[in-house]
């Protein structure tokens, strides 16, 4: 349980469910949720399988939920050039408040990687979002057993699994993808203030956040974890990670005003 406190008053309380591959849990490890963007390092595997010369930036952006920062958009363009396509071939739509139309969508790197994978494997370029497309069939195989399939916000299939299954998800990430995510964590999330980027900068883990308050990670020694905020909020994840992993400086997240004043805190109840 993570509370949001301002001036001595608790304004909100978030319940976070946790599962790990070593059997530790809080809440309900059988909770079913869609993997959403936490699956991106697995969805990038067909891209990796198609090429032997991918740069860290290309792999990292294929795993990204980016903020349309200049370096991130440049990496997406690089992958599109590799695929021999342009922005109009991206099957994600535009995202409100983002620049550059489809290119600025936070999933454009994943979609560019999917197009490049199709090019490399000789699969039809379109409609690569279709669950029946060879690319999506390969991804479903990589995801493994799941409870249901739905459509993610960017148009590709997303898979529902238990939180225990989600904890093991990133343990199947190939070493080359892990290496690229560690080398370029700022492409995976953003230059600052993004939980998976900041967590990877600590070393020893790769991590990927997903929509509706999901966070998956795997350590260098193979321990997988998954956290899911019951109400879909991302803000309690830091304190919950601090509790799970014994990281003291994550146990409390300050709340600041627009003037930069600390006016409250997000912390374990």
Describe the structure.
- This protein has a single domain, classed as Beta-lactamase (3-Layer(aba) Sandwich), CATH 3.40.710.
- The chain contains 11 helices and 12 strands.
- The strands form 3 sheets. It has a 5-stranded antiparallel sheet with strand order 4-3-10-9-8.
- The longest helix has 14 residues.
- The mean pLDDT is 97.
What's the structural blueprint in terms of helices and strands?
Elements: E1 2-6, E2 9-14, E3 16-20, E4 25-26, E5 32-34, H1 40-43, H2 45-50, H3 56-62, H4 70-83, H5 108-121, H6 134-143, E6 148-151, E7 157-162, H7 163-169, H8 175-183, H9 185-188, H10 195-201, E8 205-210, E9 214-219, E10 224-229, H11 237-245, E11 252-256, E12 262-268
Antiparallel strand pairs: 1-2, 1-12, 3-4, 3-10, 5-7, 6-7, 8-9, 9-10, 11-12
Tell me the span between the first and last alpha carbons.
6 Å
What's the number of extended β-strand segments?
A: 12
Rg, nearest Å:
18 Å
Question: Strand-residue fraction?
Answer: 15-25%
- Helix tally equals 11
Largest sheet: 5 strands, antiparallel
Query: Average pLDDT, to the nearest integer?
Result: 97
Number of domain modules = 1
CATH domain fold name:
Beta-lactamase
Q: How would you classify the helix and strand content by structural class?
A: alpha+beta
In CATH, the architecture is 3-Layer(aba) Sandwich
Percent helix, as a range, is: 25-40%
| Widest beta sheet: strand line-up | 4-3-10-9-8
User: What sequence of helices (H) and strands (E) makes up the elements?
Assistant: EEEEEHHHHHHEEHHHHEEEHEE
């Amino acid at each position: 349980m993570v509370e949001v406190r301002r001036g001595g008053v608790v304004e909100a309380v978030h319940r976070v469910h946790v599962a790990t591959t070593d059997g530790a849990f809080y809440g309900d490890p059988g909770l079913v949720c869609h993997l959403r963007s936490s699956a991106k390092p697995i969805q990038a595997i067909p891209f990796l399988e198609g090429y032997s010369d991918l740069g860290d930036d290309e792999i990292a952006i294929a795993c990204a939920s980016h903020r349309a920062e200049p370096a991130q958009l440049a990496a997406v363009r690089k992958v599109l050039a590799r695929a021999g396509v342009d922005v109009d071939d991206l099957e994600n739509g535009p995202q409100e408040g983002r620049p550059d139309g489809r290119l600025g969508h936070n999933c454009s790197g994943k979609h560019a990687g999917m197009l490049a994978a199709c090019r490399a494997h000789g699969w039809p370029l379109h409609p690569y979002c279709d669950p029946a497309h060879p690319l999506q069939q390969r991804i479903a195989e990589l995801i493994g057993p799941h409870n249901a399939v739905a459509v993610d916000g960017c148009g590709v299939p997303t898979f529902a699994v238990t939180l225990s299954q989600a904890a093991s998800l990133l343990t199947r990430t190939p070493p080359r993808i892990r290496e690229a995510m560690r080398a370029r964590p700022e492409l995976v999330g953003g230059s600052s203030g993004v939980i998976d980027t900041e967590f990877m900068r600590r070393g020893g883990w790769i991590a990927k956040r997903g929509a509706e308050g999901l966070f998956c990670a795997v350590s260098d020694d193979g321990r997988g974890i998954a956290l899911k905020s019951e109400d879909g909020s991302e803000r309690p994840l830091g304190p919950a990670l601090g509790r799970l992993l014994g990281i003291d400086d994550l146990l409390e997240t300050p709340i600041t005003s627009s003037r930069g004043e600390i006016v409250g805190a997000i912390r374990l109840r």
